[in-house]
Design goal:
single chain, Aspartate Aminotransferase, domain 1, Aspartate Aminotransferase, domain 2, 2 domains, globular, binds pyridoxal-5'-phosphate
């Protein structure tokens, strides 16, 4: 389809699908599939933002094309620490570009891919963030979504994935870990197995870790950096990250990408010519956050509070060494002075951890509450989205169900079609629905109870 025709069609579809209409979502705040957290961002970020608003410096300047140099430097410091905890002497990250959220990082990378690898295919693992499909359409890249055939799973097992790789022979594999919409995640061993296969076949690996959180005690943290460095696959791996999901700050528009030099040069160029230059707002709390993450990685629980002082000092020395004197005095030092206001480091960790505990409890609540209607549910292993499949309702009825729930209960749900390139895969099979569990418990339970009530009363409408 011609791109203009596609844009028109997309607009019409969106208009007809009232559950997705932005005004309904914003007005009612009752989209149970929304995909962003309804819980608060960490206080450290919001407090700092108030200060930034008073200080015009943050809005009257552009930053550099690849992002503020202090931020790019700290991001490399953090990502390399994660990869080797100072033990190794190899680095994971040499080339990194800050982006206005993960979205331009993904779009710009797809543009690069389309120009570099003509007629090559992409494989998307599990259901996916809709943007990947939009990029495939826009840049006319052929792609396939691969899912598991097992009950309670969307993510293919490694055996299934290897079979799909053999069958489709892609040039790029897109792997969001933890996954969106399903919340599933591979273990370190599984990821290692996948990396070994893609390495054998010279396949590029895009790792989107936007939903990955190290402070969440209810999840096992997957250290992808370490796996990629140890498996020696740095040159062909592209990492994408952002603070939209882990810090509940999609409005801050801060993300980043690191990969080989050719890719990062291209993305930095697009940042420049589209004037998609990342903002200076939230840069200081983000730098402080990264230092807190480094501290979390290198110190155990007992020494974490005192450990923060050591990390700060180390950082101050590195910055002093690497920044010209005038710049350090006028620009870098004031930033560092603000960073070191992080006294409440322990609260910062706890605040984030607590949000994930709320999320996980909401997940358990849903499984229990929906028992009667549930056919399957994915295992929530990270982030705050998971998927459910209802009994008896066929896929061809998914939009009817979504439409009826929004009309009768004013609650929006996003079914599988939104995470599978607007396709209804098997009209007579069951379908997945994304549930976003990051919401204050009472509010969340109310929404779930209402949906249950709707199903109790109306399920007959949708039966095959
Ligand atoms: C897997 C994934 N990647 C990237 C993004 C883009 O996030 P942002 O552009 O807000 O950083 C999202 C947003 O939902 C996402 O779910």
């Amino acid at each position: 389809m011609d791109l203009f025709e596609y844009v028109n069609k997309r607009k019409r579809d969106e208009y007809e699908m009232i559950g997705v209409d932005g005004s309904v979502i914003i007005a009612n705040n009752t989209n149970i599939s929304i995909g962003v957290s309804e819980l608060d961002p960490p206080k450290f970020y919001t407090d700092h933002f108030i200060k930034e608003l008073k200080n015009h410096d943050f809005i009257k300047r552009y930053t550099a094309n690849a992002g503020h140099p202090m931020l790019t430097g700290t991001l490399k410091f953090y990502e390399n620490t994660l990869a080797n905890k100072f033990k190794g002497n190899k680095n994971l990250v040499e080339n990194l570009c800050v982006t206005t959220g993960a979205t331009p990082a993904i779009t710009f990378f797809f543009e690069y891919f389309a120009n570099k690898y003509i007629n090559e295919k992409i494989m998307l693992v599990g259901l996916n963030y809709y943007l990947f499909y939009e990029c495939m359409t826009k840049y006319k890249i052929e792609g396939i979504t691969v899912t598991s055939t097992l009950h309670d799973r969307i993510a293919p097992t490694t055996t299934e994935l290897i079979m799909y790789i053999e069958k489709y022979n892609p040039k790029l594999i897109v792997l969001t870990l933890p996954m969106n919409p399903s919340g599933e995640c591979y273990s370190e061993e599984e990821l290692r197995e996948i990396v070994r296969i893609v390495k054998q076949k010279d396949i590029l690996l895009l790792l989107d870790k936007c939903q990955l959180e190290e402070f969440a005690s209810c999840y096992q943290f997957l250290n992808m950096n370490k796996v990629i460095l140890e498996e020696d696959y740095v040159q062909n791996t592209i990492f994408i990250n952002s603070i939209s999901k882990t810090r509940n700050l999609p409005g801050a528009r801060l993300g980043y990408i690191f990969a080989n030099k050719e890719i990062i040069d291209y993305i930095t160029y697009l940042n420049e010519i589209y004037y998609c230059i990342p903002p200076l707002t939230y840069v200081i709390p983000f730098i402080a956050d990264l230092l807190a993450r480094i501290n979390y990685i290198i110190h155990d629980e007992q020494s974490r509070v005192s450990g923060m002082k050591i990390v700060n000092k180390m950082y101050k020395n590195i910055s002093k060494l690497n920044t010209p004197k005038g710049l350090y005095r006028n620009y870098t030092k004031p930033i560092l002075d603000s960073v070191f206001e992080v006294k409440e480091i322990d609260n910062f960790y706890k605040e984030i951890d607590n949000n994930y505990n709320i999320t996980y409890n909401n997940y358990l609540y849903t499984k229990n509450k929906f028992k009667k209607h549930l056919h399957s549910v994915t295992e929530l292993r990270g982030g705050f989205n998971f998927c459910i499949k209802l009994k008896n309702i066929p896929s061809k009825k998914q939009l009817d169900l979504a439409r009826d729930i929004i009309i009768e209960k004013e609650i929006a749900i996003l079914p599988e079609i939104f995470f599978n390139n607007n396709k209804i895969q098997n009209p007579n099979e069951l379908f997945w629905i994304r549930i976003t569990a990051a919401r204050v418990e009472e509010e969340y339970r109310k929404l779930i109870d209402e949906i249950c009530d709707f199903l109790d009363k109306n399920i007959d409408r949708y039966l095959n």
